[in-house]
Amino acid sequence: MKKFIIALVLLFAPASYSAEKPDMEKLGKAMKLNCKTFGNDSCTSRFIAMSACTFAYGIAKSDKTVKESLDIADDLFVLLMRGNGLNPNDMFDDKNLVKESIRSETVERVDKCKEWTKEAIPKIVLERTGKEATSEFVNSATKTFGIWWLGTLEQIKKLGN
Question: Helix, strand, coil % (nearest 5) of the chain?
Fold first, then answer.
């Protein structure tokens, strides 16, 4: 499964980081998962993890800024959800928190790109604060990256209501 997720991220990374913007609708339609087999929550978890890992990859392996990498990750998430006929609002419970089934699977999946995350964290900290990150902070932030990513989605949802 790890190879599948990484392959998908790498498949999209060259297109996302090229000089020309790819046809996002075409990419979204091309990236279909059988969500009836996996279940909508599992598909959503996969797409959240792909966007989180794409964000980390964009910072770790390119000269993209945090904002540029976040924009690419957000676009990827939207096109994957839309291309598979999923509504992002369905990933939240009645308290606007990511459903537990999605949360646990997402954290497990995001952990599979921890090498990119560990490489990205110091760059994020340096860009945002102008200071070097300590190795303790990098290790801690790497371990909790999936939880942090889900927390940002919850904050966005709460701000939107």
Answer: 75, 0, 20
